[in-house]
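Troubleshooting entry. The earlier prediction with DP6 gave an output that would not parse, so I re-checked the input for stray whitespace and re-submitted. Clean input:
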Amino acid sequence: MAVTTAVAHPNVALVKYWGKQDKAGNLPATPNLSITLSTLSTQTSVRESAHDQLVLNDHEQQDLKVAAWLRQLRESYDIPPLHIETNNNFPTGAGLASSASGFAALITAINEHCALGHNPALCSDLARRGSASAARSIYGGFVALVPPQWQAQKLAPAEHWPLRVVVAVTSHLPKAVGSTEGMQRSRDTSAYYPAWVSGSGQDFEAAASAIEARNFQRLAEVSELNCLKMHSLMLTSVPTLSYWTPATLACMETVRELRRQGEGVFFSIDAGPQVKAICLPESQLQVAEQLRETPGVVEVISCELGEGARIVPS
Ligand code: DP6
């Protein structure tokens, strides 16, 4: 029986998406921008089956998000019942963007298997409907997700600026509140939400021009502050959304200390306790070593910038 397999990587947003428009299509409220990682990956295989079945990391799952997304997809395309087998080589649902690489790999495999014939822009559109950050994982390198199309666009290839990302894993546990629910709560309850929305265009422009000019200091300032703004929104949501642990704070302090010592590094944190340290290649070893020694860090994973989603041999 024909099997089609795709691989995609998670991405780290340097200007974050946290909040949706009040419209169909899972549209972000603000422009956002990311880097796609290497090393961490999701591999997804699809084949026809008597009924839909999802096996994630060797365990059969009932995933409501995937089921709803497939239902929506079938309103426009002829897609048979599928057996979907997907494996992550990193902790799932723990703030390492497994839904981004997951939906990007899944739509890439379905596009090929069911001969939808879509180009990457349209695959990005369909991935976004599953998880908006997944729209960005269709591409490698530096990627933007902006209005009016809300299909990801390649800002620059990975070779433009060979940044490194050192991921400090502080917990393998799945997060208590998922991104979709969390961002709705922030929009509905945080007094800072309007300021977040109105300031995001400026952050996006500043980050995009820092990337174009390969200005690390400027990118570090804008991106780290944008991350802290998002976490301020989370913290001021009712009830509060607090994804940090003592180990997260310790890693943030390690990164600040490394910067005081002259290393080119800044941090980014998503909806989970892990810390991603974005750094210049010459700082990577020192950053990895110091994060490994930080109390509460269970694993350190070093990545380069990676490729977009693609078909691989089954
Ligand atoms: C904190 O893309 O997971 O990682 O569209 O509801 O599935 P849904 O949300 P998702 O949110 C990602 C949030 C973030 C920031 C980011 O990646 O931009």
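This one parsed fine. The chain is about 40% helix and 20% strand.
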